[in-house]
Amino acid sequence: MSNSNADIKSNKLVERGLKYALAPAALVILYLFFGIVGRNFFSYPTLVNIIDAAYYIGFIAMGVTFVIITGGIDLSIGTVMMASAIIGGTALKHGLPMLPTMLLIILVGMAFGTFNGLMISRLKMPAFIVTMGTMMISMGVGSIVSNVSSATFPIRGQSGGWFKSIFLYLTPDDLPIPTGAILLVVVAVICHILLSNTKLGRYTYAIGSNMEAARLSGVDVKKWQMLAYIIAGCTAGIGGISYAAIYTTILPAQGQGYELYAIAAAVIGGTSLAGGVGTIWGTIIGVFIMSVLSTGLPAMDLQAHWQTFFTGIIVIGAVLLDMYRSRKAAEVKLVTAADTYKASMLEKIAGMRQELAGCTGEPDRATALRKEIAAARTEMKATFMNMKAEEKAQAARIRAEEKAADREFEEMMKRTELKEPTK
């Protein structure tokens, strides 16, 4: 059965390859589509715009990937990002230097993440309710701290304006270089290492796969679940810094809807909403799919409401794709007699091919083996099809018998009810 095992392994590799190739292929197809149909899409400024649009969604999407893998959800990550940025901008306006301001933005995001983690892991509150409440709280806190006024970060040339070069460097010839892509990759590598090579990652996947089994195995579920939300808060803070660097002005009570982009990017990249499955690099590809979409639609002269419409379609499609993947993963394939016969014949044919490879100096034997291989393949195909047809016919007979038995039982119950005396 070595050949059948090899076939099973190869099929699994093909399925895994298709799974991981789906999102990159969609990204390439989408980019080529907008390049052909859109106006001036294949240009360096457009590429810079795509990368710029990926920063803040990319950072919060990486954080929300940790949360979703644990089986949770974070609806507050977009508003937390904006609240952190506007609180930092307000502190900057009151004289705080730029570097401490950036640290403050990250700390504010982590504080909201810690709050979410405590409510969900310690008090066992539903993640949906807690993070929806935190969404409103963060919007309110940002408005209160800023006194319902916008926060403006320094532009290039002003004191503190150096932080913009972290995300977009301008050469002496005013050529924009998206240096923020380096930071995005660095954060992605750190998150990938945390998920793939650390205790945190192992426990994150374990909690998302089966929380009760992880708890019974000795995993401190509360600790690691809360840490996932803290990481999400930290990435929200980094996302707030990147948003401030790109757009300069932060408005109060903003950020609603960004969480949908982040969740959609994670799901498109292969993260399962059921938990226990996901990768950072898949999420990054999902982020760039969303970024290409947001940049490509204006290139087709479509207004912002079209972008909202197509984003909604992508979110629904991503969830349907996740449901399909989960259902396929849960399927149990029964090995029938026909499958066993095919596996044994494939093993036999593989043995004959090996023997054929060794018949270099025996042309007559090689010719005979080729004929035997062709005959075996023909016999296998015909016999396998006949066996499958018999199995389908037998399954149909069993279903018909079950339906007949159900009808007979229903009729018997009706007769019994009619015979019972009325009280």
Features:
2 domains, mainly alpha, 2% strand, two-stranded antiparallel ribbon, single chain, ABC transporter involved in vitamin B12 uptake, BtuC, 423 residues
Q: What does this protein look like?
A:
The structure is a single chain. This protein is mainly alpha-helical. It has 2 domains: 17-330, Orthogonal Bundle (ABC transporter involved in vitamin B12 uptake, BtuC); 337-419, no CATH class. The protein has 14 helices and 4 strands. The strands form 2 sheets. The protein has a two-stranded antiparallel sheet. It is extended. The model has no long low-confidence stretch (mean pLDDT 86).
Concise structural overview:
With 423 residues, the chain is an all-alpha fold. Helix content is 76%, strand content 2%.
